[in-house]
């Protein structure tokens, strides 16, 4: 079939490892945080700068780069007519969390661009043209609308333009500055049938591959996630004069919820993970009983039923804490993403690509969210993981051995060739 045909004709094809690592090093400087790691927030100026850097690199390499209305970067080989036939979309995101690493997202984008360059240089003709993509605002770290770019492309951004940052500034107002266009946002939607398949290469962000000494992960599925915004209102009072029984301490309530959130997964095993990661205390003063707390809680699972059970239990815990503490606790859904399975045919393509390169592989689920889970709404998706040093990610210590980064990109290259028949 065309899959083996294309791959079989080019078995010796490899990415330029030094070029890939050089590109990643340059990207890592954009948004380098003086406090450590990389802070390149989605729809912010650093994400735009990273996109501009890559667009320039692609243009110099003879590729055609454009930014769509949602702020996604799309890169094509010259002459590959846009919209003419279904394409193989390959990419990830360029944004990071606050003080994140230099590889989460950027690796998959840089590798996709590298693969496109190799195909272009070797004039490899593909029955299904490959398009590289850098999705905007995957993390939702600034504007609370994760998977922004992939949702926009799939027509699933819903009320995304109304999403806000923590200060109440809307996504719409960020988007124009980010190089997109709120007015033309519907133009970022791709028509049904335009994506033949989506591939994403990513660092694992967890410990499995490293601990098992395996260089390549074939992702079986991706967790769904529900994020709740929780607002706790008590009464700010004097810390020295307010008797203990008379207090309505919003931080004590938040502490109760935080421990209960952990128990949902750790003790009660209702869902796989449950985390409180954001907490804002006001007035945040030593000698005042805290009157107000804003916090988040998120639950994750690969099973939609367990995800719903985790959320329901979390809501009950919030109600219990409200009753116990005398504070009012308001809960609002900030975002939901569904668990998805990757396409068995693409898993097989990835396994064969790794096998042909002599690389061991293992199958594993993803506990992190990825644009691939949004793309699964409109196309079969496949994901490749490479090891993360110490399993650490969303932190400055995030790292992967250079050889593993290059191997992963070679697996991506041969998966692109192999996916031609899927
Ligand atoms: C976001 O993508 C996450 O997994 O936290
Ligand atoms: Mn991330
Ligand atoms: Mn990521
Ligand atoms: Mn992610």
UniProtKB/TrEMBL annotation:
Cofactor binding summary note: Binds 2 Zn(2+) ions per subunit.
Needed cofactors: Mn(2+); Zn(2+)
Pfam families: Peptidase_M20
This protein's name: N-carbamoyl-L-amino-acid hydrolase
Self-association and partners: Homodimer.
Keyword hit for Protein transport: no
A single MF term (Gene Ontology): metal ion binding
Binding-site residues, Zn(2+) 2: 104, 139, 394
Family: Belongs to the peptidase M20 family.
Positions bound to Zn(2+) 1: 93, 104, 202
Domain of life of the native organism: Bacteria
Metal-binding recorded as keyword: yes
Record keywords, A-Z: Hydrolase, Manganese, Metal-binding, Zinc
């Amino acid at each position: 079939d065309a899959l083996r045909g294309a791959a079989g004709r080019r078995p010796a094809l490899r990415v330029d490892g030094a070029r890939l690592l050089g590109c990643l090093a340059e990207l890592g400087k954009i948004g380098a945080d003086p406090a450590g790691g990389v802070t390149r927030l989605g729809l912010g100026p650093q994400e735009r700068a990273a996109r501009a850097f890559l667009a320039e690199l692609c243009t110099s390499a003879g590729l055609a780069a454009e930014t769509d209305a949602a702020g996604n970067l799309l890169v094509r080989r010259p002459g590959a007519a846009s919209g003419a036939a279904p394409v193989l979309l390959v990419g990830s995101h360029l944004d990071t969390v606050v003080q994140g690493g230099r590889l989460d997202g950027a690796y998959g984008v840089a590798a996709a661009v590298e693969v496109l360059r190799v195909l272009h240089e070797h004039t490899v003709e593909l029955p299904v043209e490959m398009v590289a993509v850098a999705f905007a605002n995957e993390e939702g770290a600034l504007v609370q609308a994760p998977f922004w770019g992939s949702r926009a492309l799939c027509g699933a951004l819903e009320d995304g333009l109304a999403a806000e940052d923590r200060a109440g500034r809307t996504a719409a107002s960020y988007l124009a500055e980010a190089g997109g266009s709120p007015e033309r946002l519907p133009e970022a939607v791709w028509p049904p049938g335009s994506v033949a398949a989506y591939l994403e290469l990513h660092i694992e962000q967890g410990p499995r591959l490293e601990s098992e000494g395996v260089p390549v992960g074939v992702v079986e599925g991706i967790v769904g996630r529900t994020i709740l915004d929780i607002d706790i209102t008590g009464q700010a009072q004097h810390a020295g004069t307010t008797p203990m029984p008379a207090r309505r301490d919003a931080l004590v309530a938040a502490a109760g919820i935080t421990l209960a959130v952990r128990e949902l997964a750790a003790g009660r095993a209702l869902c796989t993970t449950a985390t409180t990661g954001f907490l804002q205390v006001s007035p945040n003063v030593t000698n005042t009983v805290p009157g107000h707390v804003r916090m988040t809680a998120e639950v994750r699972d690969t099973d939609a039923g367990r995800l719903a059970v985790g959320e329901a239990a979390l809501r009950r815990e919030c109600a219990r804490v409200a009753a116990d503490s005398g504070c009012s606790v308001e809960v609002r859904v900030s975002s939901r993403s569904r668990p998805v399975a990757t396409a068995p045919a693409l898993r097989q393509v990835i396994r064969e690509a790794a096998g042909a390169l002599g690389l061991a592989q293992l199958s594993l689920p993803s506990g992190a969210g990825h644009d691939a889970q949004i793309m699964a709404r409109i196309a079969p998706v496949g994901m490749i993981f490479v090891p993360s040093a110490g399993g650490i990610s969303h932190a400055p210590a995030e790292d992967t051995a250079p050889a593993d980064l290059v191997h992963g990109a070679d697996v991506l290259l041969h998966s692109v060739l192999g996916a031609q028949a899927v």
